[in-house]
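Quick start: read one record
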Amino acid sequence: MADASHLHHNESGRFADGLHFGRISGIDIHADWSVIVILWLVAWSLASRAFPDGTPGYPTAWYWVAGAAMAVLFVAGLLAHELAHSVVAIHRGVMVRDIRLWLLGGIATIASEPESPNDEFAIAVAGPAMSAAIGATALIAVAVFAAFDGSLLARAALTWLGTMNLVLAVFNLAPAAPLDGGRLLRAWIWRRTGDRTLAGVRATRAGRRFAIVLIALGLLEFAFGALVSGVWLVFLGWFVFNAARSEELDITLRNELASVAVREVMSPDPITVPSDASVADVLDQFMLTHRCSAFPVVGHEGQVEGLVSLDDVRNTSPADRTLISVAHIAQPLEDIARVSPNDSMATLFDLMAQHAGRRALVFDEDNLVGIVTPTDIAHAVQRAPMRVARHHVMLPPVPPRRIGNGG
């Protein structure tokens, strides 16, 4: 089992159907249903083969108790790894929205960039350091158990836990984004060149090369009969390759749009809806008669109170749509990204990530002057390469790519 742990930017919605376990240090903790697969595979492999082969003579139930305990502690170690990233990130002024556990490990979703190579380094190294500390602690516990002639099964379980956490620490230090070692590589190149974009692109390309090596090793193992480990390496390599490519697209896109002002992208003078209108009236009189899918909601004195989208209406039962006002289902203003027409698109992306939203409202002082929608952003993305060519902006060479959502 290898932890594809990394900090990821604004990957909202991917784990929407998972479990929410509450908050730790102000960070939402989520788990995808595939974590159950991790728990089962670890517990089953340990209880049915590893522990009986290594420490024979115990009742079957004991093997399963030990296997289940190690599975839970293993996943807890993944969470601790991500929390270490997150706590350091918050200390360094980087906003962390949530932590998500899934089949390949964990992801801490951050909503802003580190400000310096030192911040990047500190955040990246914290996770592997935590995994190494857990691994070392478990192996020290094995030595203590051995000194006092403790249970062989307990020693075998702790040896497995310690070894796995040390393997995770080493694997994640591979100099290939999106792994933690890729973040360290990015910090090093950033410090040497002073160019964050160039550093990010080189780190993600290293990630793609590393992924190809993983896939090749997996195919070799598969060819020589190691079916499970071969398939696992291929799957892990595929994930790393796609994550690295996606991250490279994000980096180059942000660079291309860095000099673009929000006013060049926004839809000006958005249609607004009154806050006291019923949901049914808003659906009939606005959403079904205009091409917009979201509308700012205004109060009696014209002040903007929030934003209502077609999804908000869909999530309201038809029986309730005539009974409640749109103000009851609208997203409140504080939950929506707010930008100025003169802000850059890079600022817009950061604010939208912090608010985990797909739209932003544009204000000139207190006056609503525009809205930025996913369609507006898609059009800006499509025009970005032509804009760069027109202004002769030099970018690191990138392979041909499709324009799309890299997150």
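Residues 6-257 form one domain.
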